[in-house]
Input
Amino acid sequence: MSQTVSLPHDDSPLVIAENLHFSFSGRPIYSGLNLSIPEGKITVILGPSGCGKSTFLGLLGGRLRPDSGVLKFNGKDIPRSGSGLIAMRRKMGMLFQNSALLTDLNVFENVAFPFREQTDLPEAIIRILVLMKLEMVGLRGARNMMPSELSGGMSRRVSLARAIALDPELVMYDEPFVGLDPVSMGVIVKLISELNDAMGITSVIVTHDVAEGCSIADYVYLLDGGGVAGHGSPEEMMNSDNPGVRQFMQGLPDGPVGFHYPAADYILDLGVEK
Amino acid sequence: MISLVQGLGRWGVSFIARLGEAVLFLLGAISGAAKSLRRGRLIIQQLYSIGVLTMLIIMVSGLFVGMVLGLQGYYQLVNFSAESSLGMVVALFLVRELGPVLAALLFAGRAGSALTAEIGLMRATDQLAAMEMMAVDPMQRVVGPRFVAGIIAMPLLAAMLSAIGVLGGYLIGHGQFGVDPGVYWSSMQNGVDFYDDILNGVIKSVVFGVIVVWVALFEGYVATPTSEGVSRATTRTVVTSSLAILGGDYILTALMFGGL
Amino acid sequence: MHTKSIEVWVGIFMLLGVLALAMLAFQVSNSTAGGGQTYRIEAQFDNVGGLTIKAPVMIGGVKVGRVGDIWIDKEDYVAVVGLDINETFDTLPDDTGASVLTSGLLGAQFVGLSPGSSDFYLEDGDMLEFTQSALQLESLISQFMFNQGKSEKVEE
Output
C-alpha cells in the first residue's frame, strides 16, 4: 500500500523519504516508507506504539542509518559522518521525550551549551541570547535551578529552549505530550505552534496522542506496518474511509487491529473440552 | 554435551565481539581525549570528581596498610634480628605492589563505578543522543575529559597511598617498636631504587589507570539504557577492572622484576 | 559546588600527589646515588658465587656503583662481571683489585674494590687484572677439616 502513496508537497519539501527500508537487530521497522515534510509547517507523525515513529527521527538526525532508500534533508542525502553531518545537525533541533537535559549543568548552562560548543560568542552575548530563549519558554526565572529540581513540564520547556537555541530550520519533537499534566500540555502545544508561526521553523512531531497532535498539525501521517497507512490534513484523516485509519484516529477498541493478540482457540487453550 | 560446547562457542564469539567493540571504543576515547586536552576546565571538573573524591579513601587506606605492614614486618624481621630492614620491607611492598594495585582497586570501586553509572545514566536519559543532535561528539565532550583525568589521577593517588603507607609503617616501627628513625629511612633508601622500584610503580599505576577508565567508560557507554542495565554495568565495571588490574599486575611484575 | 572551590580542591589534590611523588623519589628511594652517568669496567673471576646483577660495588664499605652484568667468557670459560661505576669515581687506579665479598656471615654478596697505586686511571671498557673469587662455605669447611686433620697428625 505504502509504495503507491504519491508524495504531496512537491513544492520543495524540507525532508523527503522515498522507499526507505530499515531494520533493527533483524526486525524490519520500515519496508518502503514514503513521506515528505513541507517547509514551515507542522507535520505530525502518528502511529501505534512500536511502529517505529521515533526511529524516523533517529534516521533524520543521522543517528541511525537506513538499510536502503532515499532520505533527503534540504535536497541532500543525510551525511554519514564527519563535517557534513555536523553542519546538518546545526540546522536541526530536537526535543527528546525525557528532555535529555545535561544533569550536571543548571538550566542556564543547559541552554548556553549549544552556544558554547558551536560558537565563539563572548560571554555577555551568550547571556543575552540564553535569557531571550528562556523568556520565550517562560522560564527566565528558573535559570539557576538544576534539572533534578524541575517538573516534567518545566524540563521539557528548558529542553525546547535548548533545541531552538541556534535558530534551527527543523525542530523534531519526540512524544512531546507524554506524561504531562493538562496545564503543561497546553503550554507545550501553545509553544510549538507559536515557535512555528513566529520563527518559521519546520516542525516534525512524533506522537501517538491523536487529539493533541491533530489540534496543531498542518499535515498528518499515520505510520503502521512498516509504511504510511494514511496521510492528509487532520480533517481528512478524521473522516477517512480507510477502516484502519479511522480506527486509530477515533480510538476504537476493535477494528482491523484486533482486540485479541493472535492465539490458539480459546476453549482448547483452557483445556476444559477435549 | 554438544549444547555445552555450543554454549562455549557462543560465549567465545560474543566475548570476541565485545572485545573488538571495546578496542574500537578505546581508540575513539584516545582521539577524544587528545581533542579534549584543549578544554582544561572540563578536565579539572573531572579531576575533582575522579581524583579529589577518591583521595580521602586512598589516604586512610594507605595509612592502615602501612601500619599493618609495620606490624607484620616487625614481627617477622625481629626473629632474624633484622628489624633494621623494616623501612626497606615496608617501602618495597608499598612502592612495587600495594601502592599501585590497592590504589587501582579502590579507584575502580570508588571512581570507576561512579563513572559507569554516570555515563550509563546519560545514555539512558538520552543525554548522549541529545549531544549528538547538538552536533557535539560525546567522545570528545564526555568520554575524553574523563579519560584524561583518570590517567592523571591514578599515579598521583598511588603515590599518595605509598607515601602515607611509608609514614604509617614509620609510626608503628618507631612509635611502637622503637626502631631508630635514621635506620628506618636509611635502610629504605638503600633498598629502594628510584628507577627499578619507584618509576616501575608509577608506570604500573598509569597502566592501571588506563584499564579502569577504559572499562568504566566502555561499560557505561554500551550499558542497556534501563536502570537494571546501568546497575549491572556498574557491577561489571568493578569485577572486570579488578580482575584486569590483578592479572595485569602479574604480567607487569613479571616483565619488570622477573627479567634481567 | 562552585567552579572556584572545585579548582582549589583540584589544586590541593595535584599538590599532594606531586608531594607524594617527590617524597617517594627523594625520601624513600635514593635517586641521587641510583641514577646518574656510569662507566663500565670488567673483571674476571674463577667463581662469582652467589653474586647477582644489581649487587652493590663498594670501596671500603661505601657504594660506588653496581653490578651491571654477569656472563661467561666463551674462550677460557671464566666468569666475567661488568661493573657500572658512578662517573664521580673516575680516578680509580688501573691496578685496582676486585673481590667478591659477603656482607655478614649469610648476607648478600657484593663486589669490593681495593684501589691500587698506579698513576693511570681506569676507563670505560677496561679489564681489572687483580681479582679474588668468592669464598664458598663448602670449600672453607673442607679446607678447615683438612687443616684440622693435618695438625692432628703433626701432634701425633
Remarks:
- The two ends of chain A are 42 Å apart (CA to CA).
- The first strand of chain A starts at residue 15 and ends at 24.
- Chains A and C do not touch (no CB pair under 8 Å).
- Chain A is about 35% helix and 20% strand.
